[in-house]
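Tokens in:
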């Protein structure tokens, strides 16, 4: 079963990474995968939440930072070392690969053997983090849920298109990130309820 799943994963990878290759995506996908492009809008949105007087917004602002730290730790420090799956360019030949430092595209040469231990692939930390945030924020800001998930989908897709993750890595990131988001929704609801009860007016005492 794993052999069949692995082959489907490879076929989907090349469908996205090679068959789906085009000039527009060669520009869009590196931009979607570069988290620095999101720093300003995320920073402004976070400041908006933290200055709101309602406890709910401040709780969401604080928890989203803790959530991303937790999802990053879960994917990078726990799961990746556990699975130790090599990245596509360390296990396949002719990968359409983006070099984020040089900002250039290349096609990897024929690979004689799988390279293990240099960089782990499963799950995608980008996908884990972005879907954790999308799940969490969509619960509290439901009107923007479609927008959050659209961004998350594009980020996840970009990781395969750039040649740095298999589709299964992204799917795993979606599942792990959503689980992390669900955990923090539970925590957020508990905190909101706690502060609501704490700040609720006491019963009136009639003379």
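Residues out:
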């Amino acid at each position: 079963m794993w052999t069949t799943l692995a082959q489907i994963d490879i076929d989907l990878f090349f469908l996205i990474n090679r068959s789906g290759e085009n000039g527009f995506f060669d520009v869009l996908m590196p931009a979607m995968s570069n988290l620095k492009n999101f720093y300003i809008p995320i920073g402004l949105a976070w400041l908006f939440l933290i200055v709101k007087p309602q406890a709910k917004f401040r709780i969401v602002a604080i928890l989203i930072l803790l959530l991303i730290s937790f999802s990053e730790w879960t994917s990078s420090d726990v799961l990746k070392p556990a699975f130790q799956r090599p990245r596509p360019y360390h296990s396949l030949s002719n990968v359409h690969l983006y070099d984020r430092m040089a900002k250039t595209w290349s096609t990897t040469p024929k690979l004689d053997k799988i390279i293990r231990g240099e960089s782990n692939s499963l799950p995608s930390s980008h996908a884990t983090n972005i879907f954790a945030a999308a799940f969490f924020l969509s619960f509290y800001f439901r009107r923007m849920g479609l927008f959050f998930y659209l961004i998350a989908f594009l980020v996840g897709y970009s990781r395969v298109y750039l040649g740095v993750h298999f589709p299964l890595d992204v799917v795993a990131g979606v599942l792990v990130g959503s689980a992390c988001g669900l955990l923090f929704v539970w925590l957020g609801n508990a905190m909101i309820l706690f502060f609501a009860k704490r700040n609720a007016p006491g019963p009136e005492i009639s003379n």
